[in-house]
Design goal:
- The protein contains 8 helices and no strands.
- The chain is an all-alpha fold.
- The longest helix is centred in the first third of the chain and has 32 residues.
- The radius of gyration is 20 Å and the shape is globular.
- The N and C termini lie far apart (41 Å).
């Protein structure tokens, strides 16, 4: 239960990076490096999706390390690199730099996204098993609509578009909260309350 709860929190964070990246990557890159260095909407979209998948992989790799199981990485990394290299070379010739982003994302999808949970299940003596219902609901009903809408708004730089993008971030947080189970919400509220109480005690001790 703890595994699935923490994994979901990681995915919520990864989804936030995805939505935020698609919403504000173009103006940030344009201001920082110049509009001519913007790689294109497809590239930004794919790298945002990559960040989302990386949040999944990073958490599962941490769990595997805590189980003292590092052997899976010995063969998984070379496999992932080979797939990434082959796909990137093929795709970059047809669609340009976006092919690298697609190849990188695809290499994770065909390796770590399903192999890591399987390895964790085996290494934990089948005590840990991923539950996909909440993450999939979050992906299809919260992340996908918001990323799609935000991608459409990339072409607009007016104030109303910026305000709408910011509202999407608030909608994302609200949607993520709705998808959480009652028990998960209770845990988060208790953690927040505990943190606030600690701050109050520190303030009293200073006074």
């Amino acid at each position: 239960e703890n595994y699935n709860f923490l994994l979901f929190l990681f995915l919520i964070f990864g989804g936030l990076i995805w939505v935020w990246g698609v919403a504000f990557a173009k103006p940030v890159i344009s201001l920082w490096a110049g509009a001519e260095n913007y790689a294109g909407n497809l590239t930004i979209f794919m790298f945002g999706a990559y960040g989302y998948v990386i949040s999944f992989s990073a958490f599962n790799i941490t769990v595997l390390n805590s189980l003292n199981s590092t052997k899976v990485r010995i063969w998984l990394i070379p496999l992932e690199v080979c797939i990434n290299l082959i796909l990137s070379i093929v795709l970059i010739q047809s669609i340009g730099i976006s092919g690298v982003a697609i190849g990188t994302l695809a290499s994770l999808l065909v390796t770590e996204i399903w192999l890591l949970p399987l390895c964790i299940h085996q290494e934990s003596q089948k005590h840990i098993q991923i539950k996909t219902i909440a993450p999939l609901k979050h992906l299809f009903f919260v992340i996908t609509p918001l990323v799609t809408a935000t991608t459409f708004l990339i072409q607009f730089n007016q104030l109303w578009a910026i305000a709408l993008k910011l509202s999407f971030l608030l909608i994302y947080l609200a949607g993520s909260w709705i998808v959480l189970s009652k028990q998960q919400k209770q845990i988060i509220l208790e953690l927040i309350n505990s943190y606030l109480n600690k701050l109050r005690r520190n303030q009293r001790s200073i006074v």
